[in-house]
Design a protein that fits this description.
The chain is α+β, with helices and mostly antiparallel strands. It is 23% helix and 33% strand. It contains seven helices and twelve strands.
Length: 316
């Protein structure tokens, strides 16, 4: 099947001189096919305006958006399965760590800590994730984010479908490579070298080992996550659905919402055109049907960095 266009820089190196143009084209297509075959997830994300959530009743707004989604999905012949726990949120604190000059984010990297609550307080254990994200599939695929030996890191390479900044109904691709380590209890590090011991790739970025690493912002961010159910394309349950609402942990002021569904597959090149088309149509139509909610031209990460009050160049 045809693959989405990528930037020229995303293509593997051209064949040696002397090969015919047709041979070079075949090699490029073969290498690009191999890159897409390494993808096993497509996640569709729609950001939602903070002002459309009542801080005192987040669940009601989540319920309304999920209801609209189910209606649109049914019209597109997409099967909807609702979770029995769709009204039971998972609460966790979220923080991004970086140098004072945001050297990681400016290079396309995100270092994130998520700490689930136990009762009414954050627990001792936390989840640490290193992510690289960008529009160049070859660069994203080539990044080695494996955790250090002895640490149970889970890597994941996926295509993220995001909003475009100019209009509703658009869709653009970026590619993310992540390594996630769960159930850590060790104290968080204070320098880059502390995290290089966990993610050795950080030592290849040309940054000082003694560079200070700390929370990007002093604003405490809390995530309220609703696991809503599943969407089935062509009769098969292939996409898990959730909505995350970020708020100030102290004041409960809502910062942003995000509705997302993620498909999982073995072979990108063998994706059946019907479920692929339906998943993309749902994404485009849902934006238009819920346009008053939609926040264009932003990502949760860029919003988080914006809470620092500093301007930072990034390519998301």
């Amino acid at each position: 099947m045809a693959k989405p266009r990528t930037r020229a820089s995303a293509r593997p190196d051209a064949a040696p001189r002397g090969r015919s143009a047709a041979a070079r084209t075949r090699k490029l297509e073969h290498d690009l096919d191999a890159l897409y075959e390494s993808l096993h997830y497509r996640e569709f994300k729609i950001l939602l305006k903070a002002e459309d959530f009542d801080p005192n009743d987040i669940e009601a707004e989540v319920h309304d958006y999920w209801k609209l989604t189910r209606r649109v999905a049914t019209q597109l012949l997409i099967h909807v399965s609702r979770s029995k726990t769709e009204t039971d949120p998972v609460i966790r604190d979220v923080a991004f760590l970086d140098t004072p000059g945001f050297d990681l984010y400016r290079r396309g990297y995100m270092l994130r800590v998520r700490r689930p609550y136990q009762g009414t307080q954050p627990g001792r254990r936390y989840e640490l994730t290193l992510k690289f994200r960008g529009a160049d599939i070859a660069r994203a695929a080539a990044v080695d984010l494996e955790a250090a030996k002895g640490l149970a890191g889970r890597t994941k390479f996926k295509e993220e479908l995001l909003l475009v900044s100019a209009k509703l109904g658009g869709m653009r691709s970026i590619f993310s490579h992540t390594c996630q380590i769960k159930d850590l209890e060790r104290p968080l590090g204070r320098t880059l070298s502390d995290y290089t011991r966990i993610f050795p790739h950080l030592g290849t970025l040309g940054l000082r080992a003694t560079a200070r690493i700390a929370d990007v912002t002093k604003v405490p961010v809390q995530e309220v996550l609703y696991e809503l159910g599943e969407l089935g394309f062509r009769g098969t349950k292939t996409a898990k659905v959730d909505m995350a609402v970020w708020r100030n942990a102290k004041t409960h002021e809502v910062l942003i919402g995000e509705f997302a569904y993620e498909t999982h597959f073995r072979h990108y090149g063998r994706l059946h055109p019907i479920p692929k088309l339906r998943s993309e149509r749902l994404y485009r139509i849902l934006q238009r049907e819920t346009g008053a909610w939609v926040e264009l031209g932003n990502t949760k990460t860029s919003l988080y960095y914006g809470l620092s009050g500093k301007k930072v160049a990034h390519d998301e």
